[in-house]
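We close this part of the discussion by returning to an individual protein. Part of our work consisted of pairing the sequence of a single chain with a tokenised description of its backbone. No coordinates are needed to read the tokens, only the vocabulary itself. The amino acid sequence and the backbone structure tokens for this protein are reproduced below:
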Amino acid sequence: MKTLLPSTMLLLITWLVLGSSCSSDKVSPTSIRGTWVERSARQDTLIINREWVEVRRGKAPNASGYLVPKPGSGLFGYELKDNTLRITRVIYSSSMPAMFEYPVKLSGRQLSIPNFYELQHHFYGEEDRSSQKTLLFEKL
């Protein structure tokens, strides 16, 4: 019984130290590269590489009955600076502003970022963040 107490205390201290150190990691281009799946519905996927972010949202039938990518799917260019992701559409019209900024947080294998791919400004040149929510992604 005497040897069980010190090992239990050591395990508890280790668990507390590890838990407190997992609060927030530095966001860097290498730390966010990879495949990230949205945690709640697990239907949206971000594939982040050196030059772009690919948003995969699945497919849905259009008015003609053809399966097409859901709105918001596609390629986005990005720059990362001071825990801020600057996003732009790779294919865009001249009426769309160049870049928009979003705060990004990284904690272990979890990435927290506002839902930039469903906002109106990416399609119509307007910035409407009133219905924007932050999503939590998990690295595969």
